[in-house]
Amino acid sequence: MQDDGDRTSERERMVETQLHARGITDSRVLQAFLAVPRHRFVPPPRQAAAYEDRSLPIAREQTISQPFVVAYMLQKLDLKERDEVLEIGTGSGYQTALLAEMVHQVYSIEFFAELATQAGCVLSELGYKNTALRVGDGIGGWPEMAGKFDSIVGSAAAKELPVTLAEQLRKGGQMILPVGGESQHLLHVRRARDGGLVRTTLIPVRFCSASVRRPGGLIDGSWQGSPQSGSTSSIMTFAVPDFTISSSRAAANDRSRMRPSMKGPRSLTLTSTQRPLPR
């Protein structure tokens, strides 16, 4: 079949042969994979392989995850349109976009400012307005939303379950993340009505280690030490196509930014807990 400029037919083949044929049956997950152009989140030298079922390298020695594994994780969470979801490890922004197709609001944390900037630009260009990106250490989650997340999804492997993250789930909420060292597996966690945690081990996987993402600070999946001296918290807005960054705390309360739309002004709110990104 001849492909079109947006590579829609490649996404259709990916969904049919890599996802649906292997047990991904959640229609909302499949629709999200049909809608999001994965090649837009892949560095140009690797874009030809964007719809292959494998991880691909991006900047800072990180990767964009294998489509099947991402679909498996999202299906396990049984996401609803009204949900508020925390993502640990924005990376390329591809999974962020998939989540934005499926839920009300996505909060995403990325340690590397370079990756957050690149992901923010692509998300903005694609018109997503229900994503908030924070540059900082994901292990602490998003404290001001503690107890309110319907789901948490992790994209970097911790040595063991980060309890601080699990505690940010609402009662009845779910979390899925890779856990382990040389040998890793997906761990599904549900916060019970009594506040306890119900854990289920799922499939073996291979993700970048969270300890690598925080050299000298993140030890065995838990943060050791103090925040960076002079750390500030600010809200930044990307404007496309100029890609200027302006500071605006009021943007955090602008609910008009928080619904998916492929029309209208293109903007994306990014919260920085470490340092302003370069202008």
What gap, in angstroms, lies between the N and C termini?
44 Å
Give the integer mean of the pLDDT values: 77
Number of helices: 7
CATH topology: Rossmann fold
| CATH top level class name | Alpha Beta
* Shape designation: globular
Task: Work out the helicity level.
Answer: 10-25%
Order of helices and strands: HHEEHEHEHEEHEEEHEEEEE
Briefly say what this structure is.
The chain has 279 residues and is α/β, with parallel strands linked by helices. The chain has helices at residues 8-19, 27-35, 67-77, 94-102, 113-125, 163-166, 210-213, and strands at 56-57, 63-64, 84-88, 105-110, 131-135, 149-154, 169-180, 184-191, 197-205, 218-219, 222-223, 234-239, 244-247, 267-272.
Topology:
Layout: H1 8-19, H2 27-35, E1 56-57, E2 63-64, H3 67-77, E3 84-88, H4 94-102, E4 105-110, H5 113-125, E5 131-135, E6 149-154, H6 163-166, E7 169-180, E8 184-191, E9 197-205, H7 210-213, E10 218-219, E11 222-223, E12 234-239, E13 244-247, E14 267-272
Helix pairs in contact: 1-2, 2-4
Describe the structure.
The chain has helices at 8-19, 27-35, 67-77, 94-102, 113-125, 163-166, 210-213, and strands at 56-57, 63-64, 84-88, 105-110, 131-135, 149-154, 169-180, 184-191, 197-205, 218-219, 222-223, 234-239, 244-247, 267-272. Helix 2 packs across helix 4 (94-102). The chain is an alpha/beta fold. The strands form three sheets. A ten-stranded mixed β-sheet has the order 9-8-7-6-3-4-5-14-12-13, covered by helices on one side. Strands 1-2 form a two-stranded antiparallel sheet. Strands 10-11 form a two-stranded antiparallel ribbon. The chain has one domain: Rossmann fold, CATH 3.40.50.150.
